[in-house]
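User: I'm preparing a small set of examples for a lab meeting where we compare how different chains pack in three dimensions. I only have the primary sequence for this one, and I'd like the structure in token form so I can line it up with the others. Please keep the answer compact; I'll paste it straight into my notes.
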Amino acid sequence: MTTQTRTTYGEHDDDGQRAGAGDTTMRHFTIHHDGVTIPVTRGGRGRPLVLCPGLNATQAHLRELTELLRRDHDVVTFDLRGHGLASAAGRYAFQDFLSDLAAVLAELRGLGLSAAPVLVGYSLGADLAVHYAAEHPGTIAELVLIDGANPVPEPFITDAVLPAFRAMWEDLATQQEAERGTARQVLLTAQEILDLNLQIEGVRSEILDRYKKIDRPISMIMSTSMAGDSAEGPAPRFNQIWRAGVERLVREQPHIAATWLDADHQLVFTHAPEIARIIRGAQGPAGQATS
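Assistant: Understood. Below is the structure token output for the 291-residue chain.
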């Protein structure tokens, strides 16, 4: 529940720098709910669009894609709890992040958008978008899912690879120490990231039922090598599972459009222009997987 709202106006981007002459004025407001503070930024012209970040991603990380979309969309971005300029929280479970997204969209409805928004989610944000759309029919115009919400046929994190995943996230948490106090900070510990990834695997094992409840257009933008292009180690298996999950989804839900980009899971940062073009409606025919 939103308890307070504060709106300020200015001409600064998400990193606190002055916006370019062609940018529209950015509007910033803060949502307080469930004991956390969620910072929201809105700017651009055109069709409303809400961009939900993923785990370990912030508004600041998504700056390039956001600026491209603002050329013809009224774009709303925000930070999930424990990310960016949002406050820390006592819990970082999937349902807690889903409540953050729901609070943002509830606030936007109160502000009176010109139309139901396009809901775009990256990675964890895609899973949150699918669950929100399934639970709130009629509140969004369409979904665009970027490398997430994949009904993979088997889990990624098995006992055999668990030590490697744990070490990877410990390294990531150490690297993120340098971002503390900035708009790119992530406050989750390595154990919290691991626990959340295990929970996401459970969520994705049941996500097909969520898709069945959504009657809005859905587009997916997926990476061909989400785990990297190495021919050794677990990457080939992960990439195969990733593709198999999307192909299964498109078979069962042929109205879903799936576009494949030659990229890894960082595609939202490395392929922002292509992603912005697809979001504008340049994806292939519904149900067709393109590359």
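A couple of notes for your slides: The beta strands are 5-10, 26-33, 36-44, 47-52, 73-78, 118-122, 142-146, 218-223, 257-261, 289-290. The CA atoms of residues 220 and 258 lie 5 Å apart.

User: Perfect, thanks.
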